Structure formats: structure tokens, C-alpha cells
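Review form for a predicted model. The reviewer records the input and the model, then writes brief findings.
Reviewer: anonymous (R2)
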Amino acid sequence: MNVILLSEKRIKGLYNINCIMKKNCKQVWENCLSFIQDNIADKKLFDTWFNPLEPLKLEDDVLTLKVPSMFFYEFLEENYIGVLKAAIRKELGHNAQLLYSVTMDTAIKNTTANPVLPSNDLPATQNYAQNIPVSIDSQAKDLPNPFVIPGLRKVKVNSQLNENYSFENFIEGNCNQLARSAGYAVAQNPGKTSFNPLFIHGSVGLGKTHLLHAIGLETKKRITEKTVLYISAEQFFQQFVESTKNNTRNDFLQFYQMMIDVLIIDDIQFFANKTGTQEVFFQIFNGLHSAGKQLIITSDKSPAELSGLEQRVISRLKWGLSADLQMPDAQTRIEIIEKKLFKDGISMPKDVIEYLAYNINSSVRELEGALISLIARSSITKQEITLDLAKDMIDKFVKSNTKEISIEYIQKVVCDYFNIPIDTMLSKTRKGDVVAARHISMFLSRKHTQSSLATIGSKCGNKDHATVLHACRSVQNSCETDKKFRFWVEELEKKIMTQTLRRY
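Model under review:
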């Protein structure tokens, strides 16, 4: 073994060289930051994307920067590669290169990895698909993924707002006056009122979703630079699962905390008993709220009545204003019908409108469904819309909706159609015809009942919610590509609805 002994003077010399290298590394990056700041007008953007970067080393005109996550790396390369390249070459010359040392927290092993990634010389770089949470909605293949950030401007994030659900189309009454007024105030000045979060609750079909979209649309109309995102709690959960699977949880958090100004989450009761989802929601909530950004949330129950949610989450939901939606009174229901008819350019006798309003009093959704059914029957049979026709149709409509279609009933119809014993369908067999019947029954149960994914799974052979989601996705895809399969599903839906009417 050869041993090299260094003199004290030599050791001090090497130490000084090392210190000079570190000093030069930091100095070079400080000069780069000064150049970048001069070329980025928005100080907030500069502080967000460049202050967290740390210079690690400088070797042979190659500067290595430490970045907090893969999300940072991809966003910098996508949006700021031009100014970064100009700054580095100004300091180090034309042959200068930039490397990134990416810190990634691994949730499973609790260790830290630091992969080093080169910068491209291209104006932009493609996002790494494996590092991005995918498919915001498993049922809608063409639904844009909000994690795809197409450019520098935040407004390019797809808000997923429905233009038809505006304040102009929302009928105000005593049943929703507080929620509507609070929502409108939030839209005028998001994050700056005491209504943060704004928590809206009420039963199914009372207009919660409509009001959420209206708030989002009004916000975008008045403050165009605000980034608004509407998302269902179920979609949020799916995103979180994907981010956990792909080890991109940090990216998931940073997207919501940095890119969103107004976050709208529908049906938060879906988070019940989902510990991991509640944990990440808690972090996102705190980050947005402390930054003065707006949260709007809905549920079928008030915060105090929610079960399966951690107490700390419930306490956050109570911070702002809680407003409920109730079933509209008869006069408001009349106004809803008249508004709908006016929008569609249809006239209807006053006594028919009043009959509908006084006899359909369970939800606004059912009221609109009854109205559509009456118009359709009149058009198909070429009968004039009269009070007698309305009475005949509405009496049947009310009776057919007195009971909810059950999962068990759907399973029976499906099994009879395919001539498969129910026990066989609920078994673990993987035969093609049985699997198809099982998937279709799950799909129809989700579509035609109010049951949760977990409930559907438990009644379909003790399957978990992920299996149900997969089944629904599989049926959706098969309907789009297989005419025979689509025919089966359509026929079964007809049988379920027709036989349901006969039963009641």
C-alpha cells in the first residue's frame, strides 16, 4: 500500500483551493440570479422558482444546481430554459453547461435520492410521463389533466368549469340565499373575505355543483389572472393514489399549493376513512389558506355531521362560513321551471307548471327530470302539453322514483340477461363471460344508485373500491370500441328502467 504524506502547507493550499471553488460557485450563481431577476418582471415568480435553487459545485464550466423536486426540474426546463442558458453562458462562456441535482423524498423507504439530470439546449423539454399524476377522471379519457402545465402562464391550467352553470342560470330563493350571496362575494374577492373556506352542504340534487361552477366562472370573469380549479373529491383521490404509486407526491402537493388560486372540491364526504388522502388535503389546505388563496368545498352534510374525517380536517372546514342548501319552496320551483323553459324556447300552460312544482318536491334534479320527461312524451306522442297529460305522466314518474334501484336488483337483471347464476357472478372465477357480467353490474350500480364504490364492491364479491373503478373504466372503454358490448349495456339499461317502472 502506498501512503502519500502531505505537508501542512500543502494541506492548507488544497483547503484554500476548495474554499475558492465553493466561493466561485456561489458567486457565479449569485451573478446568474441577478441577471435572471432583471429579465423576469414578476418578483413573485422569481421568488417561487429561483430562490429555492442552491448551487452545489462548479467544475469545468459545468454548474450543478440543487432543485427541491422533479416538478421543479421539469417546470424550469419547460418555461425558463432560455433565461437560464443566457445567464450561465454570460458568466461561464459559450461552452457552459447546467446540471440539476434533484432531491426526491421516497415515501416508502424514507430515504433521499439525488439523481443528477442535464439541462437541454432546446427551448423546452417534454414532461416525464412517469413522474406526473395521470388521468384526472378515469371515466373521461379526453378530460385534460390539470397537472400538464402547457406554458408559463398559470391560466392555462384547465379549470374544468361548466359554462352552463352560471349565476345567471341559478335561481335564488330563501332555500339558498345565504350560500348564493356568500358565493358571489367570494367570486368578487377570492381569499380576501372571511368566507374562507366557504363550505356548502345539502342533499343530492339541490344545486351544490351548479353553485360551485357559478362561483368559479364569476371569479374567472372578474379576475382573469386567477387560476381556478374545480375537481370532485373522487377525482382528487384518484390523483393522489397515482402520485403515491409513481412516487410523485411532492409534485402533487406543489402543483396545488403553487399553481392554484381558487380550489373547488365537490363532495368531500368521499374522503371518509381515507387517511392518506386526508393527510395530503390537510397539507394543501394549510398551504393555500396561509397564502391567502380561496377554498370552496361541498358535502352532503355539515362539518359537524361528517363521519370518517379526522378532527383536524373537520376543524379546518369550520374556519370559514358554512351555508346549507334546502329544497326550494313551491314558488322557487316554479321560477326554476320557467327559467328552464325560457332558456329552451318552450311554452307551457301555467297550470301545468304549477302542478309540476307542487308535486315534485324531493330535489331540483328530479324536478328538471320530470320536466324533460313531460316534454319528451309530448313530442313523441304528438300530444299537446295539458294538465291531464302532466298528471298521467307525473303520477307514474313519482311512483317510479319512490324507491331507489338497488344493487341486488341490477345484479339480477344482468345475470338473467347473460343466463349466469348470481353465485357464479359473485365468485372469484375469471371466465370471460362472467367477468363481463360482473363488470357491467358494477358499472350500472355506480350509474343508477347512490351507493359508494366500497358498498358496490362489498356486494359484488367483496371487491375493493379500486376494483370497482377498474371495472367501470373497462366497461366505458369497451363501449367505445366494441359495438356488441355497447349493445349489451344499452339493452340492460333499458331492461332495468322498464322493469323498474313495472315494479312500482
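Findings: DSSP finds 20 helices and eleven strands in the chain.
Further findings: The first strand starts at residue 54 and ends at 59.
Recommendation: see findings above.
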